[in-house]
Amino acid sequence: MPNQKDDVYGDHISHQFNEELAELKTQFLKMGGLVEQQLADAVKALIDNDGHLADEIRARDKTVDRMEVEIDEESTRVIARRQPTARDLRLVVSVIKMVADLERVGDEAKKIAKFAMGLSEEGKAPRGYVEVRHIGNHVGGMLHDALDAFARLDSELALQVMKEDKRVDEEYQAAIRSLLTFMMEDTRNISRCMSVMWVLRALERVGDHACNIAENVIFMVKGEDVRHTSMEEAERVVSQ
């Protein structure tokens, strides 16, 4: 069940402070939605060999960058004006960290779009698209769940996102091994297969960033840093 009891943000005497925190959360989720779409479109552009869509993604990346700067600036203003403590400080600091991860997911989507444009001109690679679709869906789901965990302050959902990261790593390694075997058997397609391998690497990195966001959600809700800890320790923190 979602940890709704932990949603204690927005109960200040100052109505304006409540609104500032709510707006910060809203802007973060708005940026998250845009980045989710960038990622989904990048994978679609590659699989559909759609150079036009890939070009649109690269152009939209400027909006993601601008939103990161705006959220960072607003977070800094909240700290300067309100001097938040305890849970409020955890919220603002976590948003600053998580917005950086969102921006990097946007960068990975732009990178995928770049390879999609190249392959649309050079011709599709003979292998790897099934793996791209599968891992793309997997990490896209992780990112969505991480953002949902933030919106609902749901540490249990955040923990599930963390657990998915290992599965993505295993799927990535299996996909790379398959492509390497194919390239050794048919050297004519090395260049295009290498592009697909770089796309798979970008998707694996998206999973890492989703995991980072999930870790920060647990920090917000529980007040304990679960980065660089074992999964057993993270489970202990969430179960408290």
Automatic annotation (TrEMBL):
Q: Does the keyword Nucleus apply?
A: no
Task: Supply the alphabetized keyword list.
Answer: Cytoplasm, Phosphate transport, Transport
A Pfam family matched in the record: PhoU
Query: What InterPro entries is this protein classified in?
Result: PhoU, PhoU-like_sf, PhoU_dom
Q: Which domain of life is it from?
A: Bacteria
Primary location class: cytoplasm
Q: Where is the PhoU domain?
A: 29-115, 132-217
| Location relative to the cell | Cytoplasm
Among its keywords, does the record have Repressor? no
The family note in this entry says:
Belongs to the PhoU family.
Oligomeric and partner information: Homodimer.
Q: What does this protein do?
A: Plays a role in the regulation of phosphate uptake.
Q: What is this protein called?
A: Phosphate-specific transport system accessory protein PhoU
Native source species = Marinobacter xestospongiae
